[in-house]
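Dear colleagues,

I hope this message finds you well. In preparation for our joint manuscript, I am sending the Fatty acid desaturase (Tsukamurella conjunctivitidis) sequence together with its predicted structure, so that both groups work from identical material. I would be grateful if you could confirm receipt.
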Amino acid sequence: MAITDIAEYAHLTDADIEALGAELDALRKEIEDGRGETDARYIRRVIKSQRIAETAGRVFGLGAGMKGWKGKAAWAASAACLSYAKVIENNELGHNIMHGQWDWMNDPEIHSTTWEWDSACDSSFWRHTHNYMHHKYTNVTDLDDDIGYGILRVTRDQPWEPYMLFNPVYNVILMLGFQYGKAVQHLELMNALKAALNGGAQYREHDWPEFRNRLKVVLTKIAKQTAKDYVLFPAMAVPIAGSAGFRRSALANMTANTVRNVWDHVTIFCAHFPDDAEKFTVEEIDRETMPQWYLRQMLGSANFEGSSTLHFLSGHLGRQIEHHLYPDLPSNRYNYIASRVREIADKYDLTYTTGPIWRQYAQTWRTVAKLSLPDRFLLATADNAPETHSEKRFHDATGTSTVVKGDIDAYGNRRGLRSRVRETAQRTARQ
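The corresponding structure tokens are as follows:
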């Protein structure tokens, strides 16, 4: 099940964790002190390229309804440009700007409090569910709603229920309409549904009015996005190609939105649900210090590897461990930060979960499919499964912990979490 004692799981003493936190604090200060015009030029170039792509996509969309190869070429160009524009606006711009990564520039155009992104999800609601609930309580069961988004079972800490048999189906629906999944996340629909089925007994008197107020905001934002993408801009193509122009322009927008939704799903799931992205219990964070928070972020997040283009298109969220350590530092610095964080992980013999994007994503789908079944059909133990570990994976047959915190071998090398995980895997393979 989920980790209840992070220090024991990590094989670190209290002094080790404090020292780890000091090194990560020093790295933060280094980046903060180094921010300047180079970073500002970077984000302005990204904004410019995104706006050029979106404008080109809208212009090409005007001719998408023309007959023959010209119409087909215009449609393809429109869909491609809009897909790029929506992916960049969602990941490298919207997500990162609303984390406050560029607030230090004091530019109201790209400030976290003023940015409203090109998505069905209301930015103010997203900042609460994501910036606060998810990043503060990363992978903490019963507090982080991103663990399954209220509908998917991604850890055995979520008790199995019959509706979970369709886990993979829910995941496909979520993937194709990811912007809408994020839009309704703040509503906590599963809680409201369960309360409604129980006659509303679980909801306090003020909860239903609050739910209705939130629902109004959500529906208003969805309506605005729908009107923009599927009514306003397609209507501009009508004078050129009539109803065919309207339909094909709308289709180009739908294609771009779907590309953005699927890619968003890939980047986020690769960062949170591959093997070894750990889960934690509520009790563990009651007295959590900043160094302990750092450690939880390192153990609870996962990276994926790829080219610089891949990282750019993902909003640099392939560096999710670094993003969770420093969510408000400029994303263009994450590649450098990653090299330093990995050195720190090596120093303390901590695991650093990363791998090719295809493997990370395949593992998330395997977990979603596997956990659609009741626990009695699962082979791995509840404390040492690929998707869920606890400190009990290091207990012996009598249930006694075998963890030695801060252990140093005869050669002066630290023997911590990573070494013990490797030794356990080798021993299991020999059995």
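For the figure legend, we might mention the following. The chain has a mean pLDDT of 90. The longest strand covers residues 384-385.

With kind regards,
E.M.
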